[in-house]
């Protein structure tokens, strides 16, 4: 009897010491499994430098089993912030395009001001109309949309005979809005569906701003009061997962990641499974774009989607495109649209180009709505795309 009691006491002391070691060794990362291939880990937000006291919602507790391994309890951050556990409070996404309109300065000066200067001339000659056409083409609006805008402006200016500067400006805004597809559905599929989280897959070539965009989306969702989990399924570059963890940590969002070179589908699966158990609103998964062959990329993205859908339907597939790459970017984009059914485009780096018209080209050539635009390197420089506000901003 005494022997049994001693054995139990040793077991209890051992357990307590083990848990203590785990906690003190750093509460930041909790292993989910020891699978050498997947090596999935889950990153807890660590307390950043103390600042604003308010905290965004955090996911509820969860358990994790690892792929094929027995379930293991994972401690997630508490719903109420611990002392010192404070996160950034990003602004909501609504109205961001208007707030960031000055970021379109380059497009504004080359397209907007260029057109307004010509339209302000007393009587428009054939040369003036040609100049308008060239300005629109130079802004990458594309031939079809340019022809439509020029024809309609010509007709309208004849009807109006002597139009004021303001009238012509409004006319230009309305023609530009018209070619930007004001009726396209740009709702982001981030909502929970049938008791499961919304799942957003983010695809695109490396360097387009994919990882940054995933981080910005997480912030925007948190700013809108949503709970989020991130999946770092770009296992080609460990730094991409580190980058994503840092984004997540700042807003109290968990990141599931794998070993460098590991199986991206396993990480995506684990992220979504964790999201289902934690009952979060949205899981956002970053994927790799650096594959040597088109068929390799298609196979991998197809697999990621299939595997994820064992847990929850994918509600949005976002293709990230760098606005400064022009036609080249559109050609690259086709590879992705053939690999997965893309439901929306994120056009990044619009702050770095005079070719704001690329939005029109991308939508027309790919037949997919631009849903978000990147307007800078700042954490909250991502805005929902609104045709009217965009046209207003580039006309100036
Ligand atoms: N000016 C500007 N820079 C941006 C924008 N979006 C992303 N970037 C920058 O683009 C660079 C590449 O971004 P990443 O997010 O690392 O690109 P990626 O596609 O994920 O590339 P990998 O991490 O290699 O997969 C970074 O320096 C970002 O800060 C934007 O809207 N405007």
TrEMBL record:
Its EC number is 3.6.5.4. GTP binds at residues 204-211, 286-290, 348-351. It is a peripheral membrane protein. One of its GO terms (biological process) is SRP-dependent cotranslational protein targeting to membrane. Coiled coil: none annotated. Residues 34-92 are annotated as: Disordered. It catalyses: GTP + H2O = GDP + phosphate + H(+). GO terms for molecular function: GTP binding; GTPase activity; signal recognition particle binding. Its main location: membrane. Residues 369-382 form the SRP54-type proteins GTP-binding domain. Involved in targeting and insertion of nascent membrane proteins into the cytoplasmic membrane. Acts as a receptor for the complex formed by the signal recognition particle (SRP) and the ribosome-nascent chain (RNC). This is Signal recognition particle receptor FtsY. It comes from Blastococcus aurantiacus. The gene is ftsY.
